[in-house]
Amino acid sequence: MSDQNTAFTAAPLIREIGRGKKGARDMSQADARAVYAAMLERRVSDLELGALLIGMRIKGESVAEIAGFLEAAEASFEPLSAPANTFAPLLIPSYNGSRQLPNLTPLLALLLAREGVPVLVHGVTEDPGRVTTAEIFGALGFAALSDRAQASHALTQRIPVFMPISVLAPKIYQLLQLRRVLGLRNSTHTLVKIMQPFHQPALRLVSYTHPEYLPVLSDYFQRVEDPARGDVFLMRGTEGETVANPKRANAVTWFSQGQSTELIERQAPNDVLPALPTSNDPHTTALWIQQALLGQQPIPVPILEQVAHCLRVAKQLRS
User: Fold this and answer.
1) Cα radius of gyration (the chain)
2) What is the pTM of this model?
């Protein structure tokens, strides 16, 4: 266990990861856990912290580094308890929002929750230039949780629960905020999309943005991840979000018990586009989602298929 009052000497690790894309060496899982814990606990100087984040941004994370970082990240907050239910809890990370397409992550969450799935959406509340899931939930009348203690009860209500990362994991939130200082994303943006904050097995919807993350995350989920933590659906993000692209289905790989299955194949471009909100602003999107839930707007087929797979696997996980 780390001593939270002891400064961490980061120079040896910076020397290894800071040699550029071709010359850098990967850290061991143990070293990755130690350095990320020190970063979370701010036992490194600001200068060292910036060097570590930029060095990893240039080098890219190995599977062992992701495993070590994730261990430290999840150890930095108390896990949540899911209510007894027919379905395992389902996690939807939402850290991107949308720039162009309407953000239909709230629609996915609402469709699953009304079937009885305990749905936890976690993410950021605002992101300049993007429409966040939190903003659309607000327009729909769903307030974000302000207290972790509310989570277990809220998850029994057949409505999706949105928990800001600042409430779920405050130390992780502080590292996410460094993007506004450095101007670049860091490894934390990957970790929040793959972490599992429940005591119980859960189904995680995980997205990646850059193609180089597909083989790394696939290797991690198939070879390193403890199967007891639950299952994962991995897909290319819809503007970074884990909701199916309403215009054409994304490829989705299902990871379960160390095995991978191609759940959905990538769909070719469709000449017939679905009816979507006329604007991606929170209020227009929220109104369209309300109409879709009432059957007054057609729900895009890829999202309906995503819901069906989630229901089947979440029920299977629980049983």
Assistant:
1) 19
2) 0.94
Mean pLDDT of the chain: 94
Angle between helices 133-140 and 105-113 (to 10 degrees): 60
H or E element, residue 35: helix 29-40
Q: How far is CA 148 from the centre of its chain?
A: 18
Per-range mean pLDDT, top range of 4-13, 104-113, 175-184, 272-281: 104-113
Nearest CA among 207, 131, 198, 112 for reference residue 163: 198
Expressed as residue numbers, the domain containing 216 is 90-318
For residues 121 and 205, give the distance between their C-alpha atoms in angstroms, rounded to a whole number: 10
What CATH number is given to the structural domain containing 127? 3.40.1030.10
Residue partners of 82: CB distance under 8 A and separation at least 6: 88, 89, 118, 152, 155, 198, 199, 200, 202
How many domains does the chain contain in total? Answer: 2
pLDDT at position 282: 97
Residue at 164 is within a domain: yes
Same domain for 148 and 61: no
pLDDT in tens, 205-256: 999 998 999 999 999 999 999 999 999 999 999 999 999 999 988 899 999 9
63 and 209 inside one domain = no
Among residues 45, 51, 17, the alpha carbon closest in space to that of 31 is found at 17
Letter string b/e over residues 102-135, b meaning 16 or more CB atoms within 10 A of that residue's CB: bbbbbbbbbbbbebebbbbbbbbbebeebbbbbb
Residues 147 and 206 reside in one and the same domain: yes
Q: What is the pLDDT of residues 125-156, one digit of tens each?
A: 999 899 999 999 999 999 999 998 888 889 99
| d(C-alpha 90, C-alpha 120), whole Å | 6
Please answer whether residues 68 and 36 qualify as being in contact, where contact means their C-beta atoms are separated by less than 8 angstroms: yes
Q: Do residues 298 and 68 lie in contact, with contact meaning Cβ atoms separated by under 8 Å?
A: no
